[in-house]
Structures are given as structure tokens and as C-alpha cells.
Amino acid sequence: SFAYLSVKDRSPQILTKAIDTLHRHKSEFFEKHGEKGLEAEKKAISLLSKLRNELQTDKPIVPLVEKFVDTDIWNQYLEYQQSLLNESDGKPRWFLSAWLFVECYMYRRIHEAIIQSPPIDDFDIFKELKDQNFFESQESVIALCTHLQELRKTIEDLDENQLKNEFLKVLQISLWGNKCDLSLSGGEHISQKTNIMNSLEDLKPFILVNDMDRLWSLLSNCKKTREEESVTQVDIVLDNSGFELITDLVLADFLLSSKLATKIHFYGKTIPWFVSDTTIHDFNWIIKQLKHSNNKWVSQCGVDWEDHIKTGRWVYLDHIFWTLPHEFSAMSQVAPDLYAALQKAHLIFFKGDLNYRKLTGDRRWEFTIPFHEALSGFHPAPLCSIRTLKAEVQVGLQPGQGEQLTASEPNWLTTGKYGVFQFDGPL
């Protein structure tokens, strides 16, 4: 399975890259912290090498030791995984446990190796890769920011149909931005080199489930029925930093400019996660980069977006739940405060593949099982998954659709070539 190959090949590759990153920053650690920096680098490398060895030799999964806000929840989850095994199975192991669980566990252990190594315990081991993805996608970033700024000039004059078409465009840009995923490539460079705007028509046939019209109906109804004082809040649960984050910020800006929403909440990760996932540092860093760009439209986006944050129209939030191994159907029990916060949204966008796996519990569902059923009771508010397919889970397809794709393209579930807009909400 793709899960097996991921654990066997991709995960050790990611760990090797992490070790190499620490090696390369050795002199920087020394300059900053002297001998303590060198000791810390050695310690972190030794912990990551140990982790890689445990993984490659299929050792039992061990509890976390370093006290952190989520340590107890993680260790309880380990006990739960153990309780699922028969007596004869012993302890959960790397190749005998659910892929979602061991993959999340690996990233949490990477974080543990860093926080056990002060004074470099705030080092983001994936930052270079995320930044590089952004810099290598400059042409596309310029094209997107230019499109957005020109659109904003005329947005007041668009009729309903024209506005809908622009909305569908920015949604598709956000979808295909999700191809830039560094954990899928084992940390190899993936950037957006071409102008995505020119490819939207050609990419349409690759959208397997397309609920974009339902999203338009929902938001345009909110706009029509909104009173002067009332708020339409859209939550975006982010995935990758770099180019994908720009596509999400363009979508968020469009929602405000078109008055389809009045407030956007972004949810990111509290710790470095799945190589390229967005943290608060990535979010702020990207807006700063845009603001200081020498392209006037890019710079204008940076200025506008910083202003959205200052005025509270955009709010960035994080929560430890997003970096736990639990599927989202457990959120109301494990993180009732987060579930209650999401209930205030008029619509929630879940970006990317990991969110989809957690929405559906990462099970090998039949392709035709309805999306609503696969959510297993998770429904804080109307929600939509926007993802390109990079894991062997997909629901809500038409009868025969999955089988047809498998016959013509055996790897269609994992290449990122196909995408979905899957909505669950009032009809």
C-alpha cells in the first residue's frame, strides 16, 4: 500500500533531511550559543538518528518523555492504540499500526527531539524548505497578486454571474495550490513554476467531486440576508505554507472584497508539522515577504493583508488538536473548546490531504460512501474539504467512478493530479 511505502521510504528520507539540516546549521548554533549550541545540535541529531533506527527496524512505539502541553494526551492515545491490539501482538509498532497514527507520531517525536535540546529548542527544522518553496514560486505569486489587485478595482461593478465566476476561479486556485506538498515529496523541492491562472480550464476535468456551486449558494445567501451589524465568518483550516498559503490568502481576501464574508479565521499548527504545514511564524513571515517585495501588486497584497490582521478582519489561531493523531470525529470530546469555536463559523474550509484523512478517519472506505457518513458525526458547521488526492482514501464518488480511474491510472489516489471540493451542509 501507499501507507507502507510512505513509512518504509518517505519517512526515513524526511528524518535524514532533518538530521542534515541540523548539521548544516552547526556554525550558526555555535555563533548564537557557543559550546552549548554545539552540544544541543549533537543531542538533537542523536535523538533523530535513534528515531530513524526505531522506525526502520520496526521497534515498538514508545511514550513521549518530554513534558509539553500535549504529552499526556499523546501518551493516553498510545495506551488506546495498545488496547486495540490482541495480547499476542505486544505493543504498537511502526509497521503494524495505523498509518495516520504513526505518521503524526513521527512528527511529534521530531518536535520532541528539538525541545529536548535547548538552547536550540525553538529551531524549525523545516523552515528552509518552506521558505525555498515560496521563493521558487515567485512568478506564480506575482501573477496571483496582480490578478487579485486588478480584480479588486472592478469588484464593485461585477454582476452576480461575473462575481460567481471569479469566486469559482479563486476556489480552484486554492485547490491546485495544494499540490505543493513537501511531505509527499519527502522534502524534495516542489514549487509552482507556472502561472496557475492559465491552467484552470485544463485542470477542470481532474476535479472528481465538484460542490463549488453549493459553496456559492451558501455564501451568496449569507450576503443577501446579512444585516448591517451581523457577521459572516469563514474559517480556513490551513495546510501547507509557501505557495499554497498564498492561494489561501488570495481566497480569503476575495471573500472580504466581494463581501461574501466579513471575517476570516485561519487555523494553523502550533509546532512544525508534516514538513510544510503552516505555523504562525510562516504566516507572519510570508506576509512580511510580500510587503517588502519590489513588485507593486505583491507589495500591495502584503500591506492589505497586514491591515486585515490589524483590524481583526483576519484572525490567525492555533490549537494543539491539529497536531494530535485523533480523527476529527473525536474533537468534541478531546478539544471541546475548539469544536465550540468552529461552530461559530458559517462555513469551514479544510485544506489538504491530512485534514481529509482526519475528516474521514483515514479508513479504506468504499468510494461511493457519502462524505457525510464518512465524517462519523463531525459537523460543527457547514464544511468543505478542498484537497488534491495524495492518500488512498476517497469517498463520495459516483458508482463506478473509482473503479474506472483505477483501471486507467492505478496510482490516481496518491499523485496529487486529482482534486475535490466536497461539501457537507444544508442542501
Automatic annotation (TrEMBL):
One of its GO terms (biological process) is DNA damage response. Its cofactor is Mn(2+); Ni(2+). Keywords: Hydrolase, Manganese, Metal-binding, Methyltransferase, Nickel, S-adenosyl-L-methionine, Transferase. One of its GO terms (molecular function) is phosphatase activity. Its EC number is 2.1.1.-, 3.1.3.-. Gene3D superfamilies: 1.20.930.60, Uncharacterised protein PF01937, DUF89, domain 3. The keyword ATP-binding does not apply. Residues 7-405 form the Damage-control phosphatase ARMT1-like metal-binding domain. It comes from the Eukaryota. It catalyses: beta-D-fructose 6-phosphate = dihydroxyacetone + D-glyceraldehyde 3-phosphate; L-glutamyl-[protein] + S-adenosyl-L-methionine = [protein]-L-glutamate 5-O-methyl ester + S-adenosyl-L-homocysteine; beta-D-fructose 1-phosphate + H2O = D-fructose + phosphate. Coiled coil: none annotated. One of its GO terms (cellular component) is nucleus. Belongs to the damage-control phosphatase family. Sugar phosphate phosphatase III subfamily. Subfamily III proteins have a conserved RTxK motif about 40-50 residues from the C-terminus; the threonine may be replaced by serine or cysteine. Metal-dependent phosphatase that shows phosphatase activity against several substrates, including fructose-1-phosphate and fructose-6-phosphate. Its preference for fructose-1-phosphate, a strong glycating agent that causes DNA damage rather than a canonical yeast metabolite, suggests a damage-control function in hexose phosphate metabolism. Has also been shown to have O-methyltransferase activity that methylates glutamate residues of target proteins to form gamma-glutamyl methyl ester residues. Possibly methylates PCNA, suggesting it is involved in the DNA damage response. PANTHER family: DAMAGE-CONTROL PHOSPHATASE ARMT1 (PTHR12260:SF6). This is Sugar phosphate phosphatase.
